[in-house]
Design goal:
By secondary structure, this protein is of the alpha/beta class. It contains ten helices and eight strands. The chain has helices spanning 4-13, 72-78, 96-113, 131-141, 161-166, 172-177, 184-187, 211-223, 241-244, 252-265; strands spanning 30-33, 38-42, 50-56, 82-86, 119-129, 150-154, 201-205, 229-233.
């Protein structure tokens, strides 16, 4: 069930201009090398001072690429945002700790350079799906995304790896990727949820096994710090469609996430 805050934000989105779900042609990005890998910046012509969505793709920490963004760039540009999608080094070439470092390097590059592409470095929202969701949560919670304005976390179970193992969820990709229990604390976003408030956080979960329970538990830990949390019940989605459908006409998650973006970064 969508919580009260999400319902309010979704209601607000109903009053947004009709262009919100207008289908747009896919824009072309400008590609840059940030050191370990490359990233794509999508920005409207003549943009100046726009909020930015910084996206990290999924792929079980082993595959995926920055071009797998679907309708996100066109939709977000049409609604007054710049959009950035990054590559990061994959397993087995780089472990998860290294991947998190790549995300932080890419974010630092964007924060230092986005103004010249029309973005506002003080209004960057970190967003990720699946493995990318874990990496955004990890880097965002531990303070690696300096000045990040908000976070959009889209469908992972890897918020608390020790609890995941205890609950029987350390299987398949999780068991392969997080095979060393000595690393679980350092790689768990929940380890960095302490007494301080974190940026406003939107957490979405699909109907894939365990996603709802783990997302709700993480949301409650965040709320206990005073952090503003929006929890989206995405049980109508599969693990793949909750990412793939973002930006498509009439998509419920898109409506709720856009309202969250407008409320946090304008």
């Amino acid at each position: 069930m969508i919580d009260r805050r999400t319902l309010l934000l979704a209601s607000m989105a109903a009053f947004l201009p009709a262009k919100t779900f207008a289908r747009q042609s896919s824009p072309s990005p400008k590609t840059f090398d940030y050191g370990p890998a490359k990233l794509d910046i999508y920005a409207p012509d003549g943009a100046k001072g726009l909020p930015v969505v910084f996206f990290v793709h999924g792929g079980a920490w082993e595959f995926g690429k920055r071009s797998q963004v679907g309708a996100k760039p066109a939709f977000l540009l049409a609604n007054g945002f710049c959009f950035v999608s990054i590559d990061y080094r994959m397993l087995p070439r780089a472990d998860v700790a290294t991947q998190a470092g790549d995300v932080e390097k890419a974010y630092a590059y964007v924060r230092a350079n986005i103004a010249q592409h029309g973005g506002d470095p003080s209004r960057i929202v970190g967003m990720g799906h699946s493995a990318g969701c874990h990496l955004i949560a990890l880097t965002g919670m531990r303070g690696g995304l300096l000045g990040v304005a908000a976070l959009i976390l889209d469908d992972t179970r890897a918020y608390d790896l020790a609890a995941l193992s205890k609950n029987g969820g350390m299987v398949r990709a999780y068991a392969r990727v997080f095979s060393d229990p000595a690393q679980w604390a350092a790689l768990s976003p929940v380890s960095y949820v302490d007494g301080r408030q974190h940026p406003p956080t939107f957490i979405a979960y699909s109907r894939a096994p365990g996603r709802g329970e783990d997302s709700k538990a993480f949301a409650e830990r965040l709320r206990a710090t005073g952090t503003k949390v929006t929890l989206f019940d995405g049980s109508a989605y599969t693990h793949m469609s909750i990412d793939r459908d973002f930006g498509e006409d009439g998509d419920a998650l898109t409506t709720a996430a856009l309202a969250f973006l407008k409320a946090t970064v304008g």
